[in-house]
Design a protein that fits this description.
It contains 14 helices and 14 strands. By secondary structure, the chain is α+β, with helices and mostly antiparallel strands. The strands form four sheets. The chain has a five-stranded mixed beta sheet with strand order 3-2-1-4-7, sandwiched between helices. Strands 8-11-12-13 form a four-stranded antiparallel beta sheet. The protein has a three-stranded mixed beta sheet with strand order 9-10-14. The longest helix has 21 residues.
Length: 426
């Protein structure tokens, strides 16, 4: 007697193929020839007609098949709830405890956990909630660094810098400040610059445990005495997030997402001046866009919050706590004096009053109308006259005799001659 073996899985797959073709006929609004379909698939025409009438899919029974992980489901869920445990770690644990021959492969575990909605790092009582919170007017400013940004301008010059990011807790008004370094000097200078732009300080300034303001020894946090003295003089308080709890500083973490816009300008800006101007423009646009939580732009909400800010008080005293301060009118040479040397500023500053802030770390910040216009590292300068090449090129571009020349080449040659002249007179 001849025994025929029929593979139920193959039969189910065949019926699925037939159902797929029948569905195409339904979508086209036509009735198929059942005999023709049956002949092509090696089926009885009555079976094809039945599938057409029922119009339902056919199960191959695989979904009901038990999983090799079913008996370990409680163990998997319990281990997944532990902090820091990964799917790979759970699989290795099961193999170690129950034997490799009894535990299915790792990809099967990932699919099993996905199907049964078992997620790693989820406590038994569900995910840890982080509800949105609101801060009263004038209470809090959150600040942080967007660190180690690297961009290239149209001339191929590489700029490595940081952006100080600050946001008012109530109105969400944002301030971004360009900085080559992120020392304690930079933090205090940027905080003061933001306060001047805002027209006052908040009650507290919240940040993470940035190394320039905080150090840790044997698990204990040591605050910067200099920063605390500055905050006391300013009438504010610097507070720090709990370690490994960045959600307490969530508003500024959200503000940093706006700086991703800066990447669109990579290879498409000309020098440091334009880079600083681009950052200022990003700040302006961010404050004019309606905020989801407020329903109005931060610039509009700020009109109300600014009345709750604490007055700056003795600005000169605060500036001197950050560094040496002086005010000068820029001559036509575009050079201002600081610590026995001369430092360049952009052409637009000629005839205008600028403020020089020489910080203990050697950085010279020059601002005009409350906006940073030039940065110099005095610790790296050797000559008496220090032109930023971009400033010098800008000056030469206004000279008619250089109109048809390579401005960059002319600037490099003239700066070389200036350097040699200084060396000759030393």
């Amino acid at each position: 007697m001849l025994l025929l073996f029929v593979d139920p899985g193959r039969s189910a797959r065949l019926e699925r193929n037939v159902m797929g073709e029948l569905d195409m006929y339904r979508q086209a609004g036509t009735t198929p020839n059942f005999s023709d379909v049956a002949r092509r698939y090696g089926m009885d025409r009555h079976t094809v007609a039945k599938l057409w009438r029922n119009g339902s899919d056919v199960s191959d029974g695989r979904s009901e098949k038990p999983s090799g992980f079913d008996e370990y489901r409680e163990v998997i869920a319990q281990k997944a709830s532990l902090p820091g445990v990964t799917k790979k770690a759970i699989h290795e644990y099961l193999v170690d405890r129950y034997g490799e021959s009894k535990v299915p492969k790792y990809p099967t575990l990932t699919e099993y956990m996905r199907k049964h909605q078992i997620a790693c790092g989820t406590p038994p009582d569900g995910p840890v909630p982080h509800p949105r919170f609101e801060t009263p007017m004038g209470i809090q400013l959150q600040f942080d660094w967007k660190e180690d940004i690297r961009m290239t301008d149209v001339n191929g010059e590489i700029f490595e810098f940081n952006v100080f990011s600050a946001i008012l807790g109530a109105s969400r008004l944002k301030r971004y400040r360009y900085s080559k370094t992120k020392t304690a000097d930079d933090v205090l200078a940027c905080l003061l610059d933001v306060a001047v732009a805002n027209g006052g300080f908040t009650e507290t300034c919240l940040t993470d445990n940035m190394s320039s303001l905080v150090s840790f020894s044997k698990g204990r946090r040591k605050r910067s005495e200099r920063a605390d003295r500055f905050a006391k003089e300013a009438g504010t308080r610097i507070e720090y997030c709990a370690r490994r709890s960045p959600e307490t500083k969530g508003k500024d973490e959200s503000a940093n997402r706006f700086l991703s816009r800066l990447r669109a300008y990579d290879f498409d800006f000309d020098g440091e001046d334009e880079l600083i101007a681009i950052i200022a423009n990003i700040e302006r646009r961010a404050n004019l866009e309606p905020h989801e939580a407020l329903g109005v732009p931060p610039a509009v909400a700020f009109l109300k919050e600014k009345d709750y800010l604490r007055p700056i008080g003795n600005l000169r005293a605060l500036q001197e706590m950050v560094g040496d301060v002086s005010d000068q009118v820029v001559p036509s040479t575009m050079l201002v004096r600081c610590r026995g040397r001369e430092w360049s500023v952009p052409r637009r500053c000629i005839g205008k009053r600028v403020r020089l802030l020489a910080m203990p770390g050697g950085q010279l910040r020059i601002s005009m109308d409350g906006r940073l216009v030039a940065l110099h590292d005095m610790s790296k300068a050797s000559g008496r006259i220090n032109y930023d090449p971009a400033h010098y090129e800008e000056a030469l571009s206004s000279k008619q005799r250089y109109a048809d020349e390579d401005i960059q080449a002319a600037a490099r040659e003239n700066l070389r001659i200036i350097g040699e002249s200084e060396d000759a007179w030393r």
